[in-house]
């Protein structure tokens, strides 16, 4: 299907451009595009990967690294990374992104902070001008379960429309790898046009652990297109 081909194209382009032999500490993101990133890294060969350590951004990411036979590292041992490649739910014209569709945004943002180079990979559906244009599910916000009712109320006061993310194959709310709940909140376009400000405002709400707005963090974003071309925005 075109979307899967587009995901693969973006992942291969990003790995070919940003993961060179000298890069030894590599972060692996989460979601359905990142498996193609791991595939392309494996294709660089056992010799290239023997001296590398790979850090995960969650349980799924850790399983990807293990299943690919790559060296799994412990985040506690590092304070920086050479490169981290991760997916995105939507990217705006300034390379700000909504992330957290997979409820992994806390560890993803930690590794994005640690990385000298942080790059996003996505299919054409994620390539927007203003956040919220195509991604209608809202900004994923990781919150302490103890505080979720207060956070919901505060988000409403801020002009948001928040909903607690409920499990599909699980009764009750989705629980993240960190034991937290996820609230998805949509906001009017005026607020989505200033994502860095919105990120700060939401992060300051007591009980919020991390916000799925990644502003001014990416070096580049790669989008696979339906016509098999790749758009790189840097
Ligand atoms: O949760 C995230 O931020 C993931 O990176 C994910 O949302 C990316 O989406 P994908 O499954 O389309 O790659």
UniProtKB/TrEMBL annotation:
<protein>
    <recommendedName>
        <fullName>Ribose-5-phosphate isomerase</fullName>
        <ecNumber>5.3.1.6</ecNumber>
    </recommendedName>
</protein>
<comment type="similarity">
    <text>Belongs to the ribose 5-phosphate isomerase family.</text>
</comment>
<dbReference type="GO" id="GO:0009052">
    <property type="term" value="P:pentose-phosphate shunt, non-oxidative branch"/>
</dbReference>
<dbReference type="InterPro" id="IPR004788">
    <property type="entry name" value="Ribose5P_isomerase_type_A"/>
</dbReference>
<dbReference type="GO" id="GO:0005737">
    <property type="term" value="C:cytoplasm"/>
</dbReference>
<keyword id="KW-0413">Isomerase</keyword>
<dbReference type="Pfam" id="PF06026">
    <property type="entry name" value="Rib_5-P_isom_A"/>
</dbReference>
<dbReference type="GO" id="GO:0006014">
    <property type="term" value="P:D-ribose metabolic process"/>
</dbReference>
<dbReference type="GO" id="GO:0004751">
    <property type="term" value="F:ribose-5-phosphate isomerase activity"/>
</dbReference>
<dbReference type="InterPro" id="IPR037171">
    <property type="entry name" value="NagB/RpiA_transferase-like"/>
</dbReference>
<comment type="pathway">
    <text>Carbohydrate degradation; pentose phosphate pathway; D-ribose 5-phosphate from D-ribulose 5-phosphate (non-oxidative stage): step 1/1.</text>
</comment>
